[in-house]
Amino acid sequence: MPDQLSIAQPQFLTVGEGEAAREIAMLVRPARAGNGAPALVWLSGYRSDMSGTKAVELDGLAADLGLACIRLDYSGHGLSGGSFSDGTISRWLEEALAVLRHVAPDRIILVGSSMGGWIALRLAQELARQGGVTLEGPKLAGMVLIAPAPDFTSELIEPNLKAKERKSLAERGYFEERSQYSPEPNIYTRALIEDGRKNRVLDGIIETGCPVHILQGMKDADVPHAHAMKLVEHLPSDDVVLTFVRDGDHRLSRPGDIALLLSAVKGIIRSSTNRQMPARTAEADKFA
C-alpha cells in the first residue's frame, strides 16, 4: 500500500450519553491546502468496515487528488466500540451525523455501499432538514451508491422470513443467517427490523438535491438489480445515472468494478467543480 494511504491514524469520537455512549472510530484525511473540492465520505455496508477494499481505494483517490476523505466504523463494526446487536439504522445514522458535525467539511460527496447507500439517503434527508432549520452543516454535492440497499429490512428481509426465523425473532429477539462472506452468521435483530420501518425512504419522493450515480451488479444475490431500479423511481427530481454491471456481484470489488467506482466518483467531483467554477481551470482538469 502506498505510504500516502497510511498517514491517517484512527481518531475516536464519543457518540451518545450514559449507557448509550460508544466510541466511534474514524479516519480523516485532510484536503491539500487550497483544494476546495468536496470531501469524500465513505459509508460501509452491514458488517463491513472502513478498511475494506472499496473504502481504501476511495481514500487512495482522495490522496491522489488532494481531497479530504472521511471514513468511519459504525458501532459494533471494525475499530468502533458498542455492541453489534444494539445496532439500528437510527443508531448508525446518528453516528455518521456526529462524525460529519465533528469534522465539519463545507461540502461532501457521500459514497455508500449496500446498507451504506441507505444511510447515505437518510443522511441527505437529515442534512436537508437540519440545514433548513439552522443553515449550518455540510452541503451535499453528490452521491455514489454501490449496490444500494435502502429499506432492506422491510423490502428484502421481512417478506422472505421463514417460519423458524419469525419464531426466533419472537422468542429470542433475533435470527441468524449464514453469510457467504464470513464464517460468522449474519444476525438480524427485532430492533433493527422495527427501526428499519421508521427509516424507510422508498415510501415517497427522495429529494437529495444533488447528482446521484448508482452502480449495481446484475448477478447480485443479496440486493436484486430490480431494487436499484425501484430506487431510481423515487429520485425523479435528481440527476441520476444507473450503471449495471452485467456480471457483477454484490461486493463489486474486482479491479474493473473499482475502476467504475472511481470513475463515477470523479464524475461527481467534476460536476460539483463545474457548478462552483463557471470557467474550466487546471484544478477542474484533475478530475477529468
Written overview of the protein:
- This protein has 288 residues and is α/β, with parallel strands linked by helices.
- It has a single domain, classed as Rossmann fold.
- Helices cover 38% and strands 20% of the residues.
- The protein has helices spanning 53-65, 89-103, 115-134, 152-157, 163-172, 190-198, 225-233, 255-276, 282-285; strands spanning 11-15, 22-29, 39-43, 69-72, 107-113, 139-146, 174-177, 186-189, 212-217, 240-245.
- Strands 1-2-4-3-5-6-9-10 form an 8-stranded mixed β-sheet, sandwiched between helices. It has a two-stranded antiparallel ribbon with strand order 7-8.
- Helix 3 links the parallel strand 5 and strand 6.
- The model is unreliable at 1-6 and 278-284 (pLDDT under 50).
What structural category arises from helix and sheet content? Answer: alpha/beta
Total domains = 1
CATH topology: Rossmann fold
Q: What is the CATH homologous superfamily assignment?
A: Alpha/Beta hydrolase fold, catalytic domain
Mean of all residue-level pLDDT scores = 91
| Multimerization status | single chain
Based on CA inertia axes, which overall geometry fits?
globular
**Number of DSSP strand runs:** 10
Low-confidence stretches: 1-6, 278-284
Cα-atom radius of gyration? 18 Å
Strand residue percentage = 15-25%
The percent range for helix content is 25-40%
Q: Which second-level CATH architecture applies?
A: 3-Layer(aba) Sandwich
**H/E element string?**
EEEHEHEHEHHEEHEHEHH
Give the CATH level 1 class: Alpha Beta
